[in-house]
Amino acid sequence: MKSIPVSVDGVFYPSIKEAARALGVAPGTVVARSKYVGHWQDKRRKPVTVAGRHFNSLKEAASAFGVTPQTIQNWGRRDQR
Q1: How far apart are CA 40 and CA 56, in angstroms?
Q2: For 40, left (φ over 0), alpha (ψ -120 to 50), or beta?
Q3: Three-class DSSP category at 10
Q4: What pLDDT does 46 receive?
Q5: Pairing, β 11-13 against β 6-8
Q6: What is the DSSP letter of 24?
Q7: For the segment 33-60, what is each residue's pLDDT rounded down to a tens digit?
Q8: CA 35 – CA 27 distance, rounded (Å)
Q9: Within the chain, where are the H helices?
Q10: What is the band of 30 on the pLDDT scale with cuts at 50, 70, 90?
Q11: CA-based R_g, the chain, Å
């Protein structure tokens, strides 16, 4: 079977399988979102601001602070009270 190259958020991957592995999703997810949206759109990724710093995703913010994404969410809930 021939590999299908795909570009996700401006990053080129030689196959859907490699894109899925790099993004931490199933290959079918890459195909489905590409097919129905027309381009990749990771619906899980939403911009967040933590301590005045802007991040593209919760995972990115968690990595920067050395905590889990759940901890970042808890910080947000605590600040909303």
Answers
A1: 15
A2: beta
A3: coil
A4: 73
A5: antiparallel
A6: T
A7: 765 444 455 566 678 888 888 888 888 8
A8: 12
A9: 16-23, 27-37, 58-65, 69-80
A10: confident
A11: 16
Please name the amino acid found at residue 59: K
pLDDT at position 13, please?
82
Cβ contacts of 72 within 8 Å, gap of 6 or more: 48, 50, 58, 61, 62, 65
The tokens for 29 are 């997810």
CB neighbour class for 52 (10 Å; exposed up to 12, middle 13-18, buried from 19): exposed
How many whole angstroms separate alpha carbon 23 and alpha carbon 30? 9
Other C-beta atoms lying within 10 Å of the C-beta of residue 43: 8
Q: How confident is the model at residue 80 (pLDDT cuts 50, 70, 90)?
A: low
